[in-house]
Amino acid sequence: MDKTRRTILKLAGASALGLGTGSLGLLGKGIASAAPTPPTAANYNSPLHAKRWAMVIDTKKFDDALLQKCVKACHTIHNVPDIPTRQNIKWLFTGDYEETFPTEHNHFVAEKVEHRKFLMLCNHCTEPPCVRVCPTKATFKREDGLVMMDYHRCIGCRYCMAGCPYGARSFNFMDPRPYIKEQNPLFPTRTRGVVEKCTFCVERLAQGLMPACVEAADGAIFFGDLEDPGSEVRKALRENFAIRRKPDAGTQPGVYYII
Amino acid sequence: MYHAKYIIPALLVFLAVVTFPFWAKGKAVYRVELKLPANQTECIEDTETMRTSHMQILDHWRDKVVREGERVYTNAKGVKYSMSLTNTCMSCHSDKEKFCDKCHNSVGVAPYCWNCHLTTPKGGK
Amino acid sequence: MLEKALRGSPRYWGLLFVLAAAIGLGFGFYLYQLSYGLTVTGMSRDVSWGFYIAQFTYLVGVAASAVMLVLPYYFHHFKAFSKMIILGEFLAIAAVTMCLGFIVVDIGQPQRMLNVILFPTPNSVLFWDMLVLNGYLVLNLVIGWTSLQCYKKDVPPPSWIKPLVYLSIMWAFSIHTVTAFLYAGLPGRHYWLTAIMAARFLASAFCSGPSLLLLLIMFLRKLTKFEPGKEAIQALATIITYAMCVNVFFVLLEMFTAFYSNIPGETDPMVFLFSGLDGVNNLVPFMWTAVVLGLGSLALLIPVKIRYNQNVLPYALIMLVIGTWIDKGMALIVAGFTPNPFEKVTSYMPTIPELMITLMVYSIGALVLTVLWKIATSIRMEKEGV
């Protein structure tokens, strides 16, 4: 068993090198250097707090390289496996206009928007259907608006995946470890049989750090407290026209897109 | 009941066999040789507490961190620790096979912590 | 009474052996699934429920359908059902057993299953479904076993059984309603998001369940000297006919709403089922088969003369069971996930391991049913002195 796993790891590593030689350098150096220091109690002295965390993505500022940099930053620090089948795992992913906003049935969309790619992730909804349907409270909403997963409690019934209108959730159909290219030793992997998704980097907020994608996006993603009129997200929403994915689902998504 | 004179004694024998490990305490003292961290002398709590209650502590940590978002543990002496199996425990107890597994294997428990949590925060395996 | 299950003809033991062998074979595949995960199934990130949950849904209907015998017998004193009623209750027990089996094989962490009870979550429909299914199982076990025991001993059933029977009638409606609520309350799954989902579920259950029961009873009549009675068969066939008419009517209501409103979210899953969407059309032949079989069964059931002809009736019932099974046991789940949240279509077909594990659960149900029916018929034979 162990031997085969190692072989698969080697294979995965080799293909990663082959596919990603160009993009490896894009990753911010601070995020996954070779020998990271484990956070101690002192690292949690000044956590970031909010009444309701939210994200505003300035989609105008994104090109393919920046999108990939953000996805890679997220997937590397969270040990998200790269599985080449439709049983894959995605926390932060991209799609074109129609995939991202399928309820906006428009013809002749402005060319720059039509060809633009958009980041998608868990919307950390105010009224999350995934939380409503979960039979064990394995997924739950915190007071600050984060929708969290307790992988220890998840029974893998996948009801939350049926409930989520955004396709933000992934199920571990198989052991994910052989498919993780570079393991971040400071963060757990997941195990076979549980559902996972983006956490708005709860572990980084607790250390006073911004989410990994926000850090990687060099100012193209705003993150902050939606209930604080002075916050960066509120400022961005005041000054720009922004939309949300499937607002008609009534879930009140916490991720906004400046078009 | 049909055949009570056979069934009841048989049931009693069955119960005796099943409960055997609970009432028949052996005299041999249970000993395991553990590899302790070289650069540390104190764990987060005293040895006796860790020996008997590390699983409850970890369970408590898990709920605190995952469900309540509290990440710092203050021990009996007032020292603070990050509540993390890999980043705190395994920073010192860096060899799972010579520490965790020693007892777990000999008492036949297989905690599934390691399905997700890595065995060292230093990278590698 | 259990001793009746221990004495039987070579044919009885042969059947049990075949079923046990099928269970063993399927269990091998289940071990394979346990060690590699649900990756051995055809399910994916887009179609995250599949054949298992579909069988679960279909069988909840079969379990609920016992009420089509219990209700006329207890509420309307329709005595002709007296011989069949115990068989209906025992079929419900076997069906619920299979439902629970399909849930167990579908979840990713079966060893944590009891978390549903350890952390009860009333806002989750799945929590309520667990409650009503287990409750229905216990109700049928208690009612079925007690009434059979009283029949054997020639004593009237105890007085506490009546309230339980009335409760079980309400309960039967609740299990399929709650199962429909699993699907009907999810934003973004348009095929399921319909107020008549529970009504549709009940209608299809009340035709397919009794059809399956009647087929099995006719088979039992061939194997043993059990005689359900002509009046009972005809009455049940009539109930099936009405329920099937209502079922087809409900499907047409869905069609109207979808195609007259012309809202893409409503029409897309139907187009996917009946002519394919974005080039994915693997369910199309099945759906048209279901249409032909469903309408064909109605053509045989509606004319009273054909319906009461016991040589033709089994064919009508087989057509009906297959047709409704395709609708619920194949199409319902996949169409709910089509198109996915990104308006893309992912095809789904069960894999061999998935089918073998399904075979295991069905065989477990058949084994439970065989043993229970063996006990019930042996006691009846003994009493009637045949």
Task: Give me some keywords for this one.
heterotrimer; B: 125 residues; mainly alpha; two-stranded antiparallel sheet; 5 helices; 5% strand; elongated; C: 386 residues; 14 helices; 72% helix; 0% strand
Quick structural overview:
The complex is a heterotrimer of chains A (259), B (125) and C (386). With 125 residues, chain B is mainly α.
Protein model, in words:
The complex is a heterotrimer of chains A (259), B (125) and C (386). In chain A, the strands form four sheets. A four-stranded mixed beta sheet of chain A has the order 8-1-10-9. Chain A has a single domain (46-258), classed as Alpha-Beta Plaits, CATH 3.30.70. Chain A is globular. Chain A has 259 residues and is of the alpha+beta class. Chain A has nine helices and ten strands. The longest helix of chain A is centred in the first third of the chain and has 19 residues, at 2-20. Chain A is 26% helix and 14% strand. In chain A, a hairpin with a 5-residue loop joins strand 4 (139-141) and strand 5. Chain B has a domain at 90-125. Chain B has a two-stranded antiparallel sheet. In chain B, strand 1 and strand 2 (80-82) form a beta hairpin. The radius of gyration of chain B is 21 Å and the shape is elongated. Chain B starts with a helix and ends in an 18-residue tail after the last helix. Chain C has helices at 10-36, 51-64, 67-75, 85-106, 115-118, 125-153, 161-184, 197-223, 230-261, 264-274, 284-301, 304-307, 313-336, 352-384. Chain C folds into two domains: 1-184 and 351-386, no CATH class; 190-216 and 237-349. In chain C, helix 4 (85-106) runs antiparallel to helix 14 (352-384), helix 6 runs antiparallel to helix 7 (161-184) and helix 8 (197-223) runs antiparallel to helix 9. In chain C, 72% of the residues lie in helices and 0% in strands. Chain C is mainly α and 386 residues long. The mean pLDDT of chain C is 95. Classes of the chains: A alpha+beta (259), B mainly alpha (125), C mainly alpha (386). Chains in contact: A-B, A-C. At the A-B interface, loops of A face helix 3, strand 2 and helix 4 of B.
What structural class do the secondary elements of chain B suggest? mainly alpha
Kindly report the CATH topology of chain A.
Answer: Alpha-Beta Plaits
Q: Overall pLDDT of chain A, averaged? A: 88
- Give the helices and strands of chain B as they follow along the chain: HHHEEHH
- At the first level of CATH, the class of chain A is Alpha Beta
Biggest interface and which pair forms it?
A-C, 48 and 45 residues
Rounded to the nearest angstrom, the radius of gyration of chain B is: 21 Å
